[in-house]
Amino acid sequence: MPILLFLIDTSASMNQRTDLGTSYLDIAKGAVELFLKLRARDPASRGDRYMLVTYDEPPYCIKAGWKENHATFMSELKNLQASGLTTLGQALRSSFDLLNLNRLISGIDNYGQGRNPFFLEPSILITITDGNKLTSTAGVQEELHLPLNSPLPGSELTKEPFRWDQRLFALVLRLPGLASMEPEQVGSVPTDESAITQMCEVTGGRSYCVRTQRMLNQCLESLVQKIQSGVVINFEKTGPDPLPVGEDGLMDSARPSNSFAVQPWHSCHKLIYVRPNSKTGVPVGHWPIPESFWP
């Protein structure tokens, strides 16, 4: 049962208008509604849970959480107003805390007993923002900082505010206020240069620099395809490369180690797909990834 959390920028700058006369906030609302329609095409969407969070001060930022139904979600979405500061760090922290609310009770993180990829609660966090400077009551912030303190019990057991089955994607609206005379470029949507991009990449997601309505629709179709059951794992290369294997199955030290490999052995950051059971829809596994307890 995937969890889809929408984090909507409700800062005052979202009132700026595009060349079509619609505000950025209106475009964000329309993007969420279109995403839900695209997702509804998949029969697996029946088990989805939707949440809505804004940039307001906690706990008022949570518009639709664990207890609210889909009708409440849609009602709160339509009633959103843009006024306030661009407190992205606090909003992200509130969003992750909301997702992690029940994990300690359910035992899904399985602390101290190995990492179980098949114990997961796949979550996609989609934030829609205008990418302007981060602001707070103290002034303008150059870097994105998430508050370290968390009200959740057991939060000290995890370094990061997110878990390995939670991915962050950002739709950064860069639509112009005047109609562009240049022809629209067709192709993949580039990443944005704002502060949230690095945070997205750490969680296994990415950001999108949206300059036209067509690009926005393209991004939403791409995001629907990224709703997968899996975990993001860091693979670290240690020691020298292994010797290549010859045609006879024996080690061949004379052959270059990367003669047939597309890429030499290296550290990487990958999403590992966890296949759910075809009947129950719940992933099944038996062997955890061992944890290192050596100090």
From TrEMBL:
GO terms for cellular component: integrator complex. GO terms for biological process: snRNA 3'-end processing. Residues 3-227 form the VWFA domain. InterPro entries: Integrator_subunit6, VWF_A, vWFA_dom_sf. It holds the Pfam family VWA_2. PROSITE patterns: VWFA. This is Protein DDX26B. It comes from Neovison vison. The lineage of its organism: Eukaryota, Metazoa, Chordata, Craniata, Vertebrata.
